[in-house]
Amino acid sequence: MNRVIRWLPVLILLAAGFWRFHLLEAQSLWHDEGNSLRLAERPIPSLVEASSRDIHPPGYYIGLKWWTFFAGKTEFGLRSFSAFWGLLAVAGTYGLGRRLYGPLAASIAAALVAANPFAVYYSQETRMYAQLGALSVLSFWVLVKMLHASDHHRAENRPNQFAFHIAPWAIWLMIINTVGLYNHYTYPFTMIAQGVVFLWWWIPRRDPRARNVYIVLNVITLMFFQSWLPTAYKQITSWPQAGDQSDLIDRTDRVFTLLIYGQTATNLSALAYVLPIGLLILGVLLPDRRAGAERPSVLWRVSLPLIWSGLSIGALLLSGAYREANLKFLVPAQMAVALMLGRSLERIGAVMSGAVHTPYRLWVRWGSAVALSMLMIIPNIQNLSPMYHDDAYARSDYRRIAELLTENAQDGDAIILNAPNQIEAFDYYYHGNAPVFGLPKGLGGDDAATRQATHDLIADYQRIYVVLWGQNERDPNGIVEATLDEGAYVIGRQWITDVELVQYAVLDAPPTEPSQVVNMPFGDQITLVGYALSTDGTGQQILPGDVLGVTLFWQTDTPLSKRYKVTVQLLNPDGTLASQHDSEPANGRAITTTWQTGQTITDNHGIVIKQDAVAGVYTLIVAVYELDPPHTRLIPGQADANNAYVLTTLTLQ
Predict the structure, then answer these.
(1) Count H helices, E strands: the chain?
(2) According to DSSP H, which parts of 286-357 are helical?
(3) How far apart are CA 341 and CA 305, in angstroms?
(4) Phi and psi for 516 in degrees, rounded to 5?
(5) Is 175 left (phi over 0), alpha (psi -120 to 50) or beta?
(6) Cβ density class 406-431: b for 16+ within 10 Å, e for less
(7) Which of 377, 393, 409 is the last residue of a domain?
(8) Is residue 514 classed as helix, strand or coil in its secondary structure?
(9) How confident is the model at residue 151, as a pLDDT?
(10) Are the C-beta atoms of 468 and 438 separated by less than 8 Å?
């Protein structure tokens, strides 16, 4: 058994390394990772200056800069920096757990961190969160070493050697905390937790030497950070906020799921809730029966992970900073929760082994604790697979977007990145010739300038591709899309992971009134007032490769309670589908439930004529169908066999 105990931490680290380096390069870099790369490529003075305009301090980027000097700038090389810190976090969790609660609790806690998809995910991302977690757990490990050293030398009554033995740990804690402050602006919560733990440790002892050492090391740490304090204050107070308005119960449930089972866990059973919650409660109630461990002077050991996790979780849950994108700030809290669970399981194992004869006591203690821990560790391992292979959890695929645009964009085309901070990841992959524009510029907010810049692109280019992500923050009024919808025709749009790629064709300016008035009812409430084509008349000619602009004009005589989509289809001479364009009216900017009685809705659609289209007479039709379910069509006043209305015919030669 002792041999198994000795090798178990090594096996856990090997497993943690496999999960963190497995398929490390498979996913595309996304926009934040691209930002990390571009900052790391700058000279250090320029890097620091650029970080002053970012929401993160420069420490991580400087470390990444030195890392890429050896590891390179491939996806694997860039992400291996975080994988390294993620592996160090597992080792730090084991070290801290062993120092606080012994090897059994430490092994379980390290395994819970090693297999947790939330921890693994941010160990595979070129961002600072794995480093944040590792620095946090290492800082507590050093703090505990310092406190134990102080207790040891006070017990042996060797005051002359106090500074000699305590100073190295104090210096290490000062270094780690300084790096942590320059890593992320949530690190002060770790330092506050350190202060609470130290105070809890100090009150029964009243040791002035330890107090003075702790104060001095924190003062020096803040002195190292003081030059960045004005920048930090400006960044934190001026960065755009978009808090989540969900209630506290939903927030708590989301945080619980992430920290225990990871972001890929769905449809949790009652046992999945009861087991960890029960263990966390038992961890507080069950005393530690080791020699002297129940005394108030060492209760700080039991409370350390509770204080650590409670501060960071509470601050996020109760502040205006809570939103899905900010849950990554809880990477350190995941390690603290794992330590609490590890201690609880160790205590249960100790209780169960108490009634067993000595030769088997160790086996029962470890076996029962590890068996219970498997009820959480095995689901975590199962939850890792979707993180690697399920597109629902994939990062924004700029690699695929860049490949599509490199292949399809031609002379006379332009690319808009909305918001412009996508440029770093996009440029990493894009090797085409079409010019790339970031709109809105900067952090957005100047709608007039954005509208004019978009008009200028419409005037200068034949087709415009728009890469849409983050527009709710950078372009909340949708100026880029609205201007393009007014001056061009959408001919294609697709979602690639969480990024939308939209293609516009620039023809003559879309009309503001119909050239053909039809007043055709669709169902009982919607009327197609009329339409206009980018070429006038009926029976007009079209050519392969052309784009046909179709503008529809809609009205309703009563408010609508359902959302509908419009499909404009071009049918081959034999009646089969040649081309189509579907969208909610005005490309989703005029949802039917927002229509006002008597208001005219202008709805532009672009129809691409394929290059291999055969000569003949084509039919242009329009239909309206419910968004959900999409197969239910509104019947027009003059319907064909498919409940569509025939607009006109066109001749292709």
Answers:
(1) 22, 15
(2) 300-318, 331-353
(3) 10
(4) -125, 115
(5) alpha
(6) eeebeeebbbbbbbbbbbbbbbbbbe
(7) 393
(8) coil
(9) 81
(10) no
- Whether residues 444 and 565 share a domain: the answer is no
CA angle 122, 231, 318 (to 5 degrees): 55
Residues 218-232: pLDDT tens digits? 999 999 999 999 998
Boundary-marking domain end, from 439, 471, 505:
505
Q: Is residue 443 part of a domain?
A: yes
Determine contact, residues 54/61, Cβ cutoff 8 Å: no
Name residues of the chain where pLDDT drops below 50.
291-294, 537-539
Single-letter amino acid code for the residue at 236: I
Q: What is the pLDDT of residues 10-55, one digit of tens each?
A: 999 999 999 999 999 999 999 999 999 999 999 999 999 988 888 8
Question: Look-up: residue for tokens 């945080």?
Answer: 255
234, part of any domain: no
Host domain of residue 296: 2-228+248-393
Report how far apart the first and last C-alpha atoms of the chain are (Å, whole number): 84
**Overall number of domains in the chain:** 3
Q: Is there a domain that residue 511 lies in?
A: no
Maximum C-alpha span of the chain: 104
Cα 55 to Cα 181: distance, rounded to the nearest angstrom:
13
Q: What is the pTM of this model?
A: 0.89
Q: Name 607's bridge partners.
A: 548
Please check whether residues 389 and 411 belong to one and the same domain. no
In-domain check, residue 133: yes
Q: Are 445 and 54 in contact (CB under 8 A)?
A: no
